[in-house]
Write a structure and sequence with these properties.
Strand content: under 5%
Shape: flat
Radius of gyration: 15 Å
Distance between the termini: 56 Å
Number of helices: 3
Length: 89
């Protein structure tokens, strides 16, 4: 993989991380970002790590990234769905 690809991936990851801090300042108004970055991007990233492991033979240690990204995607999904439900009572 060329160095440029690794650098672009680093910029992408840094941008997503900064976006989380921005979204955390007003979660209600920035839910769209959390759906896109927290659920879609993390979920697809986890799926890609798993697929690459089984289809391309990437190292088993890469599955740790799948576990961390997948966990964050599911956790974000659950929290977003819970926040959408009206409060009982």
């Amino acid at each position: 993989m060329p160095l440029l690809n690794a650098q672009l991936n680093g910029i992408f990851a840094l941008t997503l991380g900064v976006g989380y801090f921005w979204a955390a300042r007003d979660v209600g108004a920035r839910r769209g970002y959390l759906w896109t970055a927290g659920v879609l991007a993390k979920g697809l990233g986890a799926a890609l790590f798993v697929a690459d492991h089984f289809l391309q033979g990437s190292p088993r240690s890469f599955l740790l990234f799948a576990v961390s990204d997948g966990t964050l995607a599911v956790l974000t999904l659950v929290l977003l769905l819970r926040a959408e439900r009206p409060a009982a009572g």
